[in-house]
């Protein structure tokens, strides 16, 4: 090993950001590097068990100041409704004096600060002679389409759908784009996101001020988008690869799922999960579960109760349980997604194509059906369905509604052994999976990433 690096991690205070920053920390610590990770106290309690190298990784709590109108005690995005998130960004900015004094007190002096939303840490870093790396945990395509200097986001008026219809000049794909009313997902760019900045201003400023941009992706899948980012910001773009946590062989799949999945033939069960964030409306939830019922295949759905419902039981359509019997399970708790995907009975993974699930689906053997909800998930889905052609996106109505027929037909399309589309995506997926699971693929990325860091350290 080369020199031991000391790296400060300061991610946006949302689980969807802190978790992948912690996976990255574990990989760096595995190679002997030291990590100081700043995060709110409650998140520290939640994430402590995921620290694999406690002698090298220190989770350091920071105090999130109260900002009106956030509820008292708010510490992370999970504590609040989406529309309040801008105020949480203001609270993040108010941690600056504490963060500054903590960084100044660290020994040995850190070599790097990794951050995403707290653009101002670069000023602290520059003053202390520390390099700053803007680490991105979403796909390069979503950065390239929305968060580059060449995208025009006017300051003097709200964004319109017309502003968003076209990707920025030189954007390298005509497939990985928003279609029709999906452009509404870009309206967020012009909205205030803490301390009087728009979301666009916050993130592009954060990237402009960095010494390097790092992205949790790989060149094979997103090389053209990474090159575009590098040209737009005129700085190096380093890739970490997917950085998926290793499966711990000592922790088996929970007995209830191992037993239930074990009842079915290999490759026949549908598994569905929509990540940690999104909550469906009740009518859409019911329509989707009816779509699974229509397939006549066994299914395990790990879904949150829809909005306005305290439990899954309360949300299920009338007579659903009696009709599907033992063939279908709708579970509202957390399941071990990677272990379920590794089970031989699972034949199809119906998912929202969050960035974590996207990589996990590529590494799994099952067919892939995608029902994206949020902006980056739509672009991930286009990447998978249109560029790599490894899965199929469920067709939606213009208002975003997914009908039971549409879901059922798409599942049948990939599960039917004779279907042309099913064969094509199976073949392409097998090819990509082979690349990803190849010994040395992930570690190769990581070795290069560490070398990249060492290279800019001396500049
Ligand atoms: O019951 C569950 C549900 C999820 N997971 C795991 O949780 C992670 C979920 O991550 P992801 O697929 O990225 O979904 P979200 O948590 O919804 O991701 C948020 O963060 C991502 C970036 O990190 C964005 O791409 C998404 O749009 C955003 O919703 C994955 O590793 C899953 O294996 C489980 O283990 N069990």
UniProtKB/TrEMBL annotation:
Q: Name one GO molecular function term.
A: UDP-glucosyltransferase activity
Recorded protein name is UDP-glycosyltransferase 79B6-like
Q: Identify its protein family.
A: Belongs to the UDP-glycosyltransferase family.
Checking InterPro entries in the record gives: UDP-glycosyltransf_plant, UDP_glucos_trans
Q: Which domain of life is it from?
A: Eukaryota
Q: Which PANTHER family match?
A: GLYCOSYLTRANSFERASE, UDP-GLYCOSYLTRANSFERASE 79B7-RELATED
Q: Which UniProt keywords apply?
A: Transferase
Origin species: Spinacia oleracea (Spinach)
